[in-house]
Amino acid sequence: MSSVQLTPGQARPGWAALLSAVAVLSTAFLLHRHLAALPGGRALALSLAFGLAFGWLLQRSRFCFYCVSRDFIEQRDARGLLGILAALAVGTLGYHAVFGAFLPEPAAGRLPPGAHIGPVSIVLVGASFTFGLGMALAGSCISAQLYRLGEGALTAPIALVGTVLGFVLGLKAWNGLYLGHIQEAPVLWLPHHLGYEGSLGVQLLGLGALGWLLWSLHRKPPAPTDVHPRWWRRRWAPHVGGILIGGLGVLAFLRVSPLGVTSELGSVARTLADHQGWLPSRLEGLDTFKGCVTTIKETLWSNNGSLVVGLVLGAFIAALLAGDFKPRWPTLPEAVRNFAGGVLMGLGSMLALGCTVGTLLSGIMAAAVSGWVFLVCAGLGLWLGWWLRRQPWRG
User: Fold this and answer.
1) 229 located within any domain
2) Chain center to CA of 85
3) How confident is the model at residue 72 (pLDDT cuts 50, 70, 90)?
4) Potential cystine with 133: which of 100, 229, 261, 381 (Cβ 3.0-4.6 Å)?
């Protein structure tokens, strides 16, 4: 009797990978029980569960804003960007349904509780551009750095340390920028001006137009060399990942808070900087905004911290089962580039009150103009960073 030989792309997960995945999942289960027993444990445990699902989805669908943008710039492969648009469309539908239930009339002066709707100012423009530039230099946005941490990417901790430093720089610059530009900046929410029906229609029309443009420019990529990967190794179609992430974003908003990954990093940075005496005694207006804002940490666990831990664990489990856990030491230039990119991302996300998840994804789902501004300006910064990485620098 002949035996079937599996190619590397078809090979089943080894026992070591399976046992490791079970161990990580068991750890997550025990952590879930521990969090549930703490004060506010229901939200903490839910956040961990949402993070596990988010990390799994990010890893399996390669939901990385820089990576899919690079695919389109270099190869005209629009599938990843269309997946992001799918997430935004699903999230827009879900968010507007939630808004209609909890805030029937979008009266001026009232905003849906917790939604990531930020001020629109020149600071947002510059911060978004800076974030996009840093994302390109580091090779991933912050959420992708976190899921790649679960894949064993040793550049990710370097970029995340840089991100914390960038947050400290943003906190030190906050008061001057707030008093000069942000304090009087409008907080623009489309339902205030268009109503829910108009806001929903404009957003879906805009997303549809972007989708049509991307599809018209799309070039079919060459067929993969591994034509029959097993289901546990196969990357999910970007639109499938996008639809599921959009649905997860709505569920997270309904049950705990909008998706975002920088609040905990920023809070760690703020707490460390405050203890070192690097910050002014008062950060003007910062705690009045919604979004991925920072706080002085007084407890070990927070909702956003639980989500981030869950994200890394979920990506770790997915990577182990798919054979994607492949640690590799970075070269010195890679380490420097990732650190510098992390600093720019931290600075940008601090001043923009979020990143590609909190301000762009959750913001656009919530019909916040700040989310659309972030999308455009971060995209321009990303393109510049991509161009800089392709230059034949010497010395």
Assistant:
1) no
2) 14
3) very high
4) 381
Bridge partners for 189 per DSSP: 368
How far apart CA 120 and CA 182 sit, in angstroms, is 8
pLDDT in tens, 285-296: 888 887 677 777
Residue at 359: amino acid letter: T
Q: What is the pLDDT of residue 393?
A: 62
Q: What pLDDT, on a 0 to 100 scale, did the predictor assign at position 113?
A: 87
Task: Using pLDDT thresholds of 50, 70 and 90, give the confidence band for residue 255.
Answer: very high
Q: What is the pLDDT, as a whole number, of residue 225?
A: 62
- Encoded tokens for 268: 């760690």
In a domain, 9, yes or no: no
What's the domain count of the chain? 1
225 domain residue, yes or no: no
Q: Decide: 373 and 100 in contact? Cβ < 8 Å.
A: no
Domain assignment present for residue 395? The answer is no
3-class SS string, the chain: CCCCCCCCCCCCCCHHHHHHHHHHHHHHHHHHHHHHCCCCHHHHHHHHHHHHHHHHHHHHHCCCHHHHHHHHHHHCCCHHHHHHHHHHHHHHHHHHHHHHHHCCCCCCCCCCCCCCCCECCHHHHHHHHHHHHHHHHHCCCHHHHHHHHHCCECCHHHHHHHHHHHHHHHHHHHHHHHHHHHCCCCECEHHHHHHHHHHHHHHHHHHHHHHHHHHHHCCCCCCCCCCCCCCCCCCCCHHHHHHHHHHHHHHHHHHCCCCCCCHHHHHHHHHHHHHCCCCCCCCCCHHHCCCCCCCCCCCCCCHHHHHHHHHHHHHHHHHHHHCCCCCECCCHHHHHHHHHHHHHHHHHHHHHCCCHHHHHHHHHHCCEHHHHHHHHHHHHHHHHHHHHHCCCCCC
